[in-house]
Every structure is written in C-alpha cells, then in structure tokens.
Design goal:
This protein is globular. A five-stranded parallel β-sheet has the order 2-3-1-4-5, sandwiched between helices. The longest helix is centred in the N-terminal third of the chain and has 15 residues. Helix 7 packs across helix 10. By secondary structure, it is α/β, with parallel strands linked by helices. It contains 16 helices and five strands.
Length: 319
C-alpha cells in the first residue's frame, strides 16, 4: 500500500467509564469535517459489537462454550449476525485502504474487555498492514470507577449488597497487557481520566490533542452519557432488584429494570454516593494493578495521592 509508510492509525480502546461513548458520538458527528482534513473514522454501529465478533473466535473447549456466544440478546445478538460482521469488515477495510486518509481513527471500548489474546494479535496484524498504530486508552481511578460502575450495575439489575461485597474494579492488567504484548509498549498512549491530567480538564480537548487534531475540530455532543442517579433513585432500583431477584439474583439481571431505571432517574435529590468503605475496598483490591500501572507509566498513575508508593523509574512489564 503506497500510503502505509506514513498513515497513522489510532485505536481507542476506552476503557470502561472513561467517556468512550462521548468520544464516539463526537467522532460520528464530525466525520465529514474530519474527512476534509484527511482523517477517516471507522464507524461500526453504536456499540461496536460487530467489530468484536469480526475478530472473536468461539472457544468450544470451555465448559458450556464461550461466554461471549451464550445467551445473546439485544445489541450483542445483532452484532453477531453475519451481515453485521460483513458490514464491520467492509467499513474497516474501506477506512484502512482509503488512499486519501493520512489518519484513521477506530474507537471501540468493547475490544479491551471482550477480545482474547490471540484475537488482539489478529487485530494488531490487520491494523499494522495499513500503517503505524497508536493504542489510546483512558484510565479511571479505582474509587471513581467503582462509583460509576455501581450506578450502571444498579440499572442492570444488581443489588447494592452485591456491590458492597465485591466492589467493581477496573482491571488494568487484564485489559492492557494483551495490547502491550501484540502492539508493543511504545505504541501505547495511556492517559488518566482526571481533570488535572486532561488537557484543559476536558476529555474531547485531550482526545483532539492525542489525535493531532486542531482544537475545536470535534463537535461537542449536547449530552454526555446517562444522568447521575440520585440517592432516592438508587434505593428505588435497589429495592426493585432485591424483590425481583429474591433467591434468584440472576433473574433481576436477565430482566434489567429498563422502565424502572427511567422512572428512578426522574427522582430528585442529592447524588447517590457509594460508601467510603466500598471505595477503600475497591482501591485495596486494585493495589497490585496500581503498582503495575505505576511502573508502566513511570509515575504515580492518579494525582489524588492515594494508594501505595510507586517507583519513579519507568519499566515496562512483561506480557
């Protein structure tokens, strides 16, 4: 390919609760303006499930089969359809083979969580055929991650007592090591989702800088993500989840409270906050990941000053 030696490919992998939907909406709304600048955006539906299934390989050696291919419903089932996968391949190939594009941007947070090691390898091989790849990931501090994840889990049918028992954790090593292994540590651009670390304290300003775009290139979405839950809304969802999931918690998650969540979000009041001990437990469980991440970055990853002391010298961890 004549342009492969100078084309830049930016793969944005999220991660969860770091504003990936906001970035994807901004890219979609700005695709025409970006195309005039020689920047091609790969669009694979709203959530990106077809792109996952494009590289995902069913593992039939696992008991009950690969969990990604069990009990498919909603967007996940639509993304697994052959026509959706073919459309994803066509969109990806068209962007990577576009001779007029000096930059290709691919944003999908599902890749980090749902692709296995060998599948990330296949993704890396495909992207490297077209140009120089940079893997961009935003990182959320474990306590803040637990707060945002708790609100999402409540909407999905999980009760508060389950969140207190095992607080959600970001799992930095699980998500990033496979990308470091197959793309190389030098290709990773890791950024902290914190106002003191983002350019101008704004996610889209920071993303534009990471992509080499002029300030203000991306259209600003009118609404960024779902509204925060009030304390009354959180307790209403918790009551619903406990009643529906009485003795069978899985039932409440199989039938998430779609209508109840919309009604609960309308309840006014002060914002729902998880208990301080739940935040501390989330940080404690993430301690090893924080040490690993600090060595990778060469500094303490989050500016809050919380967590264990980290070495100052940079060192790339092994795969």
């Amino acid at each position: 390919m004549s342009q492969s030696d100078r084309r830049r490919i930016l793969l944005h992998i999220g991660l969860q609760f770091t504003g990936a939907p906001t970035i994807q909406v901004a890219l979609s709304d700005s695709r025409d303006a970006l195309a005039r600048q020689g920047v091609r955006v790969v669009e694979v539906d709203r959530l990106g499930w077809p792109l996952v299934y494009l590289f995902a390989k069913p593992d039939r050696t696992q008991e009950k089969g690969d969990p990604r291919f069990r009990s498919l419903s909603g967007a996940r089932r639509a993304g697994a359809r052959p026509e959706a996968v073919r459309a994803a391949r066509k969109a990806l190939d068209a962007a990577l083979d576009d001779p007029n594009a000096h930059t290709v941007i691919l944003s999908c947070e599902l890749l980090a969580e749902h692709l296995r090691w060998r599948e990330v390898k296949a993704l890396a091989e495909r992207l490297r055929e077209a140009g120089e790849v940079t893997v961009l990931a935003y990182l959320r501090e474990p306590g803040a991650y637990a707060q945002l994840a708790a609100e999402t889990r409540l909407r999905e049918g999980v009760a508060m007592r389950a969140l207190k028992r095992v607080p959600p954790q970001p799992g930095f090593r699980k998500s990033l090591k496979k990308f470091i292994r197959h793309f190389g540590a030098e290709a990773m651009d890791l950024r902290v989702q914190h106002p003191r670390r983002l350019l101008n304290g704004d996610l889209l300003d920071d993303f534009e800088a990471a992509c080499g775009l002029a300030p203000g290139t991306l259209a600003r979405p009118k609404r960024r993500g779902p509204p925060r839950l009030s304390l009354a809304a959180a307790w209403a969802l918790n009551l619903r989840n406990r009643l529906v999931g009485w003795k069978r918690p899985g039932r409440a998650m199989r039938f998430p409270p779609a209508l109840s969540a919309r009604l609960a979000e309308a309840l006014p009041g002060r914002t729902y906050r998880i208990a301080p001990e739940t935040r501390r437990e989330a940080r404690r469980r993430s301690r090893k990941d924080l040490i690993w991440l600090g060595r990778l970055l060469g500094r303490r990853p989050f500016p809050s000053g919380r967590g264990p002391a980290l070495p100052q010298r940079a060192r790339t961890p092994g795969p």
